[in-house]
Amino acid sequence: MEYLHHHLSEALKQLRQANGWSLTLAAQRTGVSKAMLGQIERGESSPTVATLWKIATGFNVPFSFFIHDSRLQPGETVAFNQPNAQMSVRPLLPYDAKLRFDFLAVELAPGAQSDSSAHEAGVIEQVVVLEGELLLSLDGIWRRLQVGEAIQFAADVAHSYHNPLKTPLRFHSLIHYLART
């Protein structure tokens, strides 16, 4: 996890500098406070999954940009665990730049909820429940998904994942990003 903490710090710093953004502009574009962005860059704080999503969306990069390292062997992945251990996200495949998708394994602790702000326009997400039960909120409307059930939705609205059970929830998420114009 220490490696990932350092990788996140460096990735954010390099991305911000490559875009020529100040911390103030990065905060405006991502919806994450300037103080929090600075703490992440200095390695003083680990973001939640929801915060990392806001940063990825604001910079128009895939979520896995922050948790994938080119030094990993083919097929090797690193999970991103929230500091409070309520959610874990692990790429199942490296980000595919040609097809523009992330394929993620997600685990939510019993009773946990993760709220996600709207992604950029045109982003589509597909979710398949592997274990447990998922309550999925799309723009404030809750849907219940059981093991083996799937849903596809426009992820450019606020959405939340909630595990109502006393056992872990595991699901796969395939996220298709809009091509840059």
If you had to describe this structure to a student in words, what would you say it looks like?
The structure is a single chain. This protein has 181 residues and is α+β, with helices and mostly antiparallel strands. The chain has helices spanning 2-19, 23-30, 34-41, 49-59, and strands at 80-81, 87-96, 101-108, 113-116, 124-131, 134-138, 141-145, 150-154, 159-162, 169-176. It has two domains: 2-66, lambda repressor-like DNA-binding domains (434 Repressor (Amino-terminal Domain)); 80-176, Jelly Rolls, CATH 2.60.120. It has four helices and ten strands, in the order H-H-H-H-E-E-E-E-E-E-E-E-E-E. The strands form two sheets. The protein has a six-stranded antiparallel β-sheet, with no helix packed on it. Strands 4-9-6-7 form a four-stranded antiparallel β-sheet. Strand 1 (80-81) and strand 2 (87-96) form a beta hairpin. The chain starts with a helix and ends in a 5-residue tail after the last strand.
